[in-house]
């Protein structure tokens, strides 16, 4: 059941107003900006979208507003993953039944550290409960659990799991997985600074956060790679890496810096919900200095 979700998937931020309620008015300009710079699919209510602190009724409001303003070709993936298999299945069924949703994303269960068998059974349980396409999300840095090669191959063989978002970065392992699962699923980089390296081993594209700010550059890199202009692609990768160091700095978690930059681009407010907090004045200055030096705002036609 391979469905086309494109090469650039953006894990979208959730705009909030000054009262920390959903800022529905900011959805339309944000979605149009993302589409105009190469995004083909939007992931809603993931980590970047502050999913853990967005309530269920708000997720429906968010989905409805995005659906209303998106291009008819743009797909929507709803994050449904938790570390409770029963709850994840319940979420998966609920959102899969919604006609506005094209696919769902399921992260490896975090915190409770299941075995490889448990990891597989978690995805199997969701797979057997729905008919919509599933993106499996592998991010050991946040979940503290790692799928081995054998488990990845088994998950790829589940009928509805048609995508893998990988943020582990073990490219040798992933290349082996891609060879063993050819035609079973599309593999996406979950790490903006490593996109070129993921393309080299056969990845389809990227689930990006940096695409909020430099989507056109990411799009250019993929085009350069496909045209075998590898030197150009590597140059673009160096630029993406430098910008990513400001969007994902050690001193603040995603999506705090990205929302701040989007606020400077005039697209939305920078507000985040606790336990996330906004950047300090000095942190903002550091980020802005680099982005101005790299002429990021000039490229995005915002100031």
Could you please describe the fold and organization of this structure?
The chain has 303 residues and is α/β, with parallel strands linked by helices. It has a single domain (8-229), classed as Aldolase class I (TIM Barrel). 46% of the residues lie in helices and 12% in strands. The protein has 13 helices and eight strands. The protein has helices spanning 27-36, 56-69, 85-96, 116-129, 140-143, 149-156, 171-180, 195-200, 211-226, 230-247, 256-264, 281-293, 296-299; strands spanning 8-11, 41-44, 75-79, 103-107, 134-138, 161-166, 186-189, 205-208. Strands 1-2-3-4-5-6-7-8 form an eight-stranded parallel beta barrel, surrounded by four helices. Helix 1 crosses helix 2 (56-69), helix 3 runs parallel beside helix 4 (116-129) and helix 9 (211-226) packs antiparallel against helix 10 (230-247). The longest helix is centred in the last third of the chain and has 18 residues, at 230-247. The chain is globular and about 45 Å long. The N and C termini lie far apart (43 Å). The model has no long low-confidence stretch (mean pLDDT 97).
């Amino acid at each position: 059941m391979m469905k086309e979700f494109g090469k650039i998937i953006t894990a979208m931020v959730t705009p909030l107003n000054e009262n920390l309620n959903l800022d529905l008015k900011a959805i339309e300009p944000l979605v149009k900006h993302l589409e105009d710079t190469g995004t083909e699919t939007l992931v809603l209510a993931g980590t970047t979208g502050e999913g853990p602190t967005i309530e269920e009724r708000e997720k429906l409001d968010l989905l409805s507003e995005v659906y209303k303003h998106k291009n008819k070709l743009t797909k929507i993936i709803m994050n449904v993953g938790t570390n409770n298999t029963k709850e994840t299945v319940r979420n998966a069924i609920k959102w899969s039944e919604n006609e506005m949703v094209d696919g769902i994303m399921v992260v490896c269960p975090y915190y409770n550290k299941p075995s490889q068998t448990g990891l597989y059974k978690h995805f199997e349980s969701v797979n057997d409960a729905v008919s919509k396409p599933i993106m499996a999300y592998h991010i050991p840095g946040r979940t503290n659990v790692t799928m081995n090669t054998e488990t990845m191959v088994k998950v790829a063989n589940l009928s509805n799991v048609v995508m893998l978002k990988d943020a582990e970065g073990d490219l040798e392992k992933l290349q082996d997985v891609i060879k063993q699962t050819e035609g079973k699923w599309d593999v996406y980089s979950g790490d903006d600074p490593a996109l070129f390296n993921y393309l080299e081993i056969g990845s389809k594209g990227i689930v990006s956060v940096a695409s909020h700010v430099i989507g056109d550059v990411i799009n250019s890199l993929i085009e350069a790679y496909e045209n075998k202009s590898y030197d150009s692609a590597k140059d673009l990768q160096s630029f993406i890496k430098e910008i990513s160091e400001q969007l994902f700095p050690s001193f603040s978690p995603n999506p705090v810096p990205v929302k701040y930059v989007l606020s400077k681009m005039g697209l939305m407010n920078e507000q985040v919900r606790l336990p996330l907090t906004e950047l300090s004045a000095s942190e903002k200055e550091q980020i802005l200095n680099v982005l101005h030096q790299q002429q990021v705002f000039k490229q995005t036609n915002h100031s």
